[in-house]
Amino acid sequence: MKENVMVVCAHGDDEVIGCGGTIAKHIQDGDKVHVLIMADGVSSRNAVHQDYQKRNEAVLKAADILGHTVTQLAYFDNEMDSYTQLQIVKSIESEFAEHKPTIVYTHWPHDLNVDHRVTSMCTAVACRPIPNSFIERLFYFEVMSSTEWQTNGEVFNPNWFVDISSTSLKKIYALECYDVEMRPLPHARSISGIVSNSQRRGNSVGRYDAEAFILARGIC
What we know:
The protein is α/β, with parallel strands linked by helices and 220 residues long. The chain has one domain: LmbE-like (Rossmann fold). It is 39% helix and 20% strand. The chain has a seven-stranded mixed sheet, with helices on both faces. Strand 1 (4-9), helix 1 and strand 2 form a beta-alpha-beta unit.
């Protein structure tokens, strides 16, 4: 049975860092994947107009490589905590109503980045298990340079792994679209660092490359 999959992420590049290989694998398996990007990703910066154009181009190029469709909203970057939860939840629910996902991926709720945390919380609310909900599984993914930088004692402890050995190259190509967001080693958000993390996650479960998730809720 083919799945309708949605990825709800704060910024363009989070979808590739957190689950780019998994997105490509879903597409490979014949599933439909739609990515919802909540914030503009650049309004907290100085060269907003130029950066917005580059980020928008990168989002579309990465989507073309991985094979998913995408919707971009325009919440202000690093200010998602200034909006009401109701407003954000309703915007997510609107996308859910259109795409009817059976599987949802979003941020880990304890990430250092405030937009990640707000996106995760509001996605969880939108995924609440009300009767006749079409959502069967909710997963949290990790984003290098946010998830592992948390210092409040919370640790991302994955319980679900997706073998991306067959799609790891597509993930790398999609990451290269976000060259303005990538950093040189030894920064955690370098392409080499992200690839190394995929290899580490894979090796922990006897695979070459994997993406790691926390299954927050599953119904079968």
